[in-house]
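In the laboratory, one determines a bound structure by crystallizing the protein with its ligand and collecting diffraction data. In a computational setting the workflow is compressed into a single prediction: the sequence and the ligand go in, and a structural description comes out. We illustrate the idea with zinc ion.
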Amino acid sequence: MLAKNGRMKIAMQRSGRLTEESVALLRACGLNFEFLKQSLYSPCKNFDLDILAIRDDDIPEYVQDGVADLGIVGENIIKERGAEVEVLLPLGFGGCKLMISVPQRSGIRKVRDLNGKRLGTTYPNTLREFLKKEKTKAEIIKLSGSVELAPSLDVADAICDIVSTGTTAKMNGLKVFCTVFESQAVLVANRAALKDKTKRALIDRLLIRMRGSLDARGKRYMMLNAPVQSLQKIKNIIPSLKSPTVVPLAEAGMVAVHSVIAEDVFWDVMEKLKAAGASGIVVTPIETIIR
Ligand code: PRT
Ligand code: ZN
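The predicted complex, in structure-token form:
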């Protein structure tokens, strides 16, 4: 059932590493809203959706319990909480790894060396599952924060914490040595919401938009003119140019070629394209690709 006001709710992190990209993604879906960090709700003006801005740790339970129908949160949090939610879409941001790190001079070289050792973490459940799978018996010390300090305070022999650049570990005299879980931000849904016809329709509309905007990431739309006889050469230069749109130009023997191209290869192939006879090359950003 939709909320009394007929609107759905999507939970996202109020203020943190996932906030900016979550807001950007929703905006890229064409949702028009004012995002105010100090207010719990931000209603979308052109979609039956309210944005619920909360701590990331609360998102899995809120979605599981139907307080929110959808959520944007790291897989690391969903896994740790064991939340019963449906993961609908990986979102390609918030990438990080839950890793075990040990002091630089520690003799711990492999996972089995952790037998009988103390491991400090804020992810006891994920770590427990990992150690069990690795048939390693270590004591898990549940911490609530500043995990990286645990070895120097002699609270633990090793830690299990989120790593992205590795700088925090390094700055605290630690070296990372094994990955427990890889994570990124995902779109999750409440299971009952997915079975509700009205909600499902709204979720599907949102999913099409999100996929479209994620698909367009890192891609550009390229248009160029070329003599017909250069076409094969041009196709060979750009591997992604499998089925370009080829349009005849008013000038005899000339065609316009339109195609989607990965932005990271564009500059590398530009000179080659010119040498192959391409001219009037125009490259524009793509907002969305609906397949
Ligand atoms: O207030 P709230 O509870 O909402 O936020 P929070 O402080 O708990 O979370 P936040 O904003 O730090 O992270 C939100 C989510 O971003 C996490 O759940 C992960 O899914 C993802 N993420 C991506 C990260 C990192 N990268 C990250 N580097 N979460 C935490 N870190 C921390 C890590 O805990 C460690 O302290 O950054 C440090 C390590 O970073 P490096 O770059 O030095 O390796
Ligand atoms: Zn948090």
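The CA atoms of residues 13 and 55 lie 5 Å apart. Keep in mind that any predicted model is a hypothesis to be tested, not a measurement.
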